[in-house]
Fold:
Amino acid sequence: MRDEHRGRTVTAIEYHAYESMARKELERIEEAARLRWPAVRIRIVHRVGLLQVGETSVLIAASSPHRAEGFESLRFAIEEIKKSVPIWKKEIYEVGHAWIEGS
Structure:
């Protein structure tokens, strides 16, 4: 988790999710990656709740016989997560907070 966004100091981030739908969508992304890169094995985990600066919010693990395919699948997964998974992010600042879209 980064400590700055658009010139503001971020002290924490709070993730909210429609958890059952989010899990299904993460599984759909994993399957789409498997279909696109058959030799790649991929797993995605996204945390919810309050996270402090420096904590990990999303973990995407890929195993691949070739580096390029592995990296491509990781990029694909993170971009798809931003587009379609029902997880909402509230950045908390030194003063105030804001809901962030597409981050």
The two ends are 11 Å apart (CA to CA). The beta strands are 4-5, 8-17, 41-46, 49-52, 58-63, 87-93, 97-100. The chain has one domain: 4-100. The helical segments are 19-36, 67-84.
